[in-house]
Amino acid sequence: MNIPLLTPELIEAFIIVFIRVSAMILMVPIFGERRVPFMVTWGLSLLISSLLFPLVEKQAAPAVDLDFLSFALRIGGELAIGVIIGFAARFIFAGIQVAGELIGVQIGFSIANVIDPASNQQVSLITEIQYMLALLLFLTVDAHHIFIAAIAESYERIHRSNLIGMGVAPLQFKAGESLQSLGLTGFETYEITGISDGLALRKDLTVKARSDDGKTKEFKVTCRIETPAELDYYRHGGILEYVLRQLA
């Protein structure tokens, strides 16, 4: 068994994954409840991060020579992504609680209150029953697995505006096409026609993919630059270069 060498880059990448996972765990119902011991919550976050890290190590790795401010901003972004994913589940359960309160008022159970151990507040009996049933259903259908998978898949996707901000043109396959359908591996050499001259909003471009054995595949993609401002950012090599040239 080969034990990987711990490098500063590897530690930084793990911290990034851990921040995103722990933010989601703290927001997801059950795991983020007050009744769950502190050590259990953080231990679960550490366990899930350790399991996910080998799968997303390359995607999570920070840029080379990342300064402290940039790394802090990256941490803030990871925290926000984790909170948003966990908040999706929290939002659903909040809707169930509101529905329980309304049902309790309608059937006259609004005065039959109990203490909700999650919030330490009084809620109607119907609300607590619905909430507990929702938690059981959440675990029965393995919904918590969906959110863990969402964390892993979130490293496989990047918003097109972020790419444009870095000076990278976001290209999208045509409907019905994908890496699998085109038989691409990602190790080909790609030649994009039309991206240098006359680039326009949502322009269709031609891509030629040449594999190591000399085989060439040609297909169409759509450049997802959709506003004049985004086109300016791309032509300047990214939003930072654009701003610096405006200040010069």
Detailed description of the structure:
The chain has helices at residues 8-27, 38-60, 68-107, 125-140, 143-154, 160-165, 179-182, 228-235, 239-247, and strands spanning 113-116, 121-124, 171-173, 189-193, 204-210, 216-223. The longest helix has 40 residues, at 68-107. The mean pLDDT is 77. The chain has a 4-stranded antiparallel beta sheet, with no helix packed on it. It is built from 9 helices and 6 strands; from the N terminus they run H-H-H-E-E-H-H-H-E-H-E-E-E-H-H. It has 2 domains: 8-154, no CATH class; 161-247, Aconitase, domain 4. It is 56% helix and 12% strand. Helix 3 (68-107) packs antiparallel against helix 5. The chain is α+β, with helices and mostly antiparallel strands and 248 residues long.
Keywords:
2 domains, alpha+beta, 9 helices, Aconitase, domain 4, two-stranded antiparallel ribbon, 4-stranded antiparallel sheet, 12% strand, 248 residues
Describe the structure in brief.
The protein has 248 residues and is α+β, with helices and mostly antiparallel strands. It is built from nine helices and six strands.
How do the SSEs run, as a string of H and E?
HHHEEHHHEHEEEHH
How many separate helices? 9
Shape: elongated
Q: What is the topology, as strand order, of the major beta sheet?
A: 3-6-5-4
* Radius of gyration (Å): 24 Å
- What structural class do helix, strand and pairing data support? alpha+beta
Tally of discrete structural domains: 2
User: How many beta-strand segments?
Assistant: 6
Whole-Å distance between the termini?
55 Å
Specify the helix fraction band: 55-70%
